[in-house]
Amino acid sequence: MPRKSYQPGDYQLAVRKSVTGRGLFAGEKIPKGACIIEYTGKLLTQEEYDRTTSRYLFDIGKGRVIDGWFGGSKARFINHSCVPNCESDPYKGRIYIRALRNIAPGEELAYNYGEEYFDQYLGKNCRCPKCMPELWAAA
Question: 27: number of CA atoms within 13 Å, CB side?
Answer without folding.
Answer: 8
